[in-house]
Amino acid sequence: MKRRNFMSLLLAAALAATAVLAGCGNGGSGKATVRIGEVTRSLFYAPEYVAIAKGFFEEEGLNVELTTTPGGDKTMTALLSNVIDVALVGSETSIYVYQQGSDDPIINFAQLTQTDGTFLVAREADDSFDWNSLKGSVFLGQRVGGMPQMAGEFTLKKHGIDPKADLELIQNVDFANIPAAFASGTGDYVQLFEPTASIFEKEGQGHVVASFGTESGLLPYTVFMAKQSYMNKNEKTVQAFTNAIHKAQLWVEENSAEAIADAVLPYFENVDRDILISSIDRYKQQGSFASDPIIDEAEWNNLLDVITSAGELEKRTEHSELVDTSFAENAIEAVN
């Protein structure tokens, strides 16, 4: 998807995002309120929920209002139209907006996840899985231009598979409907986040055969970002927010999957505890949760390589243009 199409989607989604998120206020707490829009509800974002559940935001004098806005386009629309203050979404969205020309760029300030969060799910279990098995298959992928799809294509190419020529790639299913499409019979393979992947395994609808997170390397995959103007006017709030996230990161690193599952259970009321535990353990084992909020340059450059490989980057946007590590650095000094 060309960047002009991405921006068109942002405009088209603006009214819907506003309708979903309108009505956010101070909550009457006297604390500074931060309205967060997350791109999806996933155990991939466990540290975010831990920061809320364990009271780390409150400790920092913040009241947070969390809304899920499925899809990067909708989340970015909400941020651009001031319906939310902070977005939790893939860094690529900030690049797309920047390359359209903006006098108020979206700045990445705190990293939450550092790998791709999707898993390759097959219809049948395969203990001796080989990536070449995908050749000639029907692959139910993610949105064009989004990080899951680009990381997926990057991995396929690394294994000598041309995603456009060696398989039938389906990319016209809305992000929120991909699991249902696979469950109804579309595709031989699908790319899914947790806990959906584990739920499919438990129900016998699919089997995890590989991880795109371990295959595509370290990336600033999901990041907290805000408008430059917001950050300039609310430096103390952004710093407090980053401090709370780092407290949660350290807590997640130091605690078991069972303890984390118990902390985030209120955000996944319809998911069995054993599924929460196995999903979190998968992410912990492959190092998906960032241990600190710093978005480093090496990871940023790997991100640019992935986007370039997908043909979605008009020009390389340097780390210094869209990343501010000062809040993360201060958080590490304050919290550790």
Automatic annotation (TrEMBL):
The keyword Chloroplast does not apply. It is found in: Periplasm. One of its GO terms (cellular component) is periplasmic space. Residues 1-22 form the signal peptide. It comes from the Bacteria. Gene3D superfamilies: Periplasmic binding protein-like II (3.40.190.10). Keywords: Signal. Its main location: periplasm. The keyword Transmembrane helix does not apply. Belongs to the bacterial solute-binding protein SsuA/TauA family. This is ABC transporter substrate-binding protein. It comes from Paenibacillus arenilitoris.
